[in-house]
Write a structure and sequence with these properties.
Helices cover 28% and strands 23% of the residues. The N and C termini lie far apart (34 Å). The protein folds into 2 domains: 2-77, Rossmann fold (3-Layer(aba) Sandwich), CATH 3.40.50; 83-133, no CATH class. It is built from 4 helices and 4 strands; from the N terminus they run E-E-H-E-E-H-H-H. It has a 4-stranded antiparallel β-sheet, with helices on one face. 7% of the residues are buried. It has helices at residues 41-49, 71-77, 93-99, 113-126, and strands at residues 2-12, 15-26, 56-61, 64-65. A hairpin with a 2-residue loop joins strand 3 and strand 4. By secondary structure, it is of the alpha+beta class.
Length: 133
């Protein structure tokens, strides 16, 4: 999978916060955006996620413009965990990762053994010691 952002302009209302940023990230790569407070890092990510409207430029996933994906299709390929979040309930890390499978689970159904396996595999691949006390 490849995420490509071309000449993105992001902001709020008439105010542009980020102008002309381009990024290419393929599966397995890690992208780190560094910068002082207020320069638009969060605005840029919120735009990629579709929380904010892209003012100009393009956002592509595997060469396809994100506007050509349905919300459900995007939910199957993009996951988001905010930096600061105060959960209402005391969820375990596994439960939060399993929630990322929601778009793959039929309405009014519970996660299957396959969903649980995929969530566990994702945790093992990114944090091999997640379930050790």
């Amino acid at each position: 999978m490849k995420l490509e952002v071309r000449d993105a302009v992001c902001g709020y209302g008439k105010k542009n916060i980020v102008s002309g940023i381009s990024v290419n990230v393929s599966s397995g790569e890690i992208l780190c955006l560094l910068g002082p407070n207020g320069v638009g890092k969060t605005t840029f990510f919120k735009t990629i996620l579709g929380f904010l409207k892209l003012k100009s430029g393009e956002i592509l996933i595997d060469g396809k413009n994100i506007h050509n994906y349905s919300r459900k299709q995007l939910a199957k390929i993009i996951g988001y965990v905010p930096q600061l979040h105060t959960p209402t309930f005391p969820f375990k890390v596994f439960d939060v990762v399993l929630m990322g499978r929601t778009a793959h689970i039929p309405m009014f159904s519970s996660p299957s053994k396959k969903d649980r396996y995929i969530a566990e595999k994702a945790l093992e691949d990114t944090c091999p010691f997640y379930n050790i006390p």
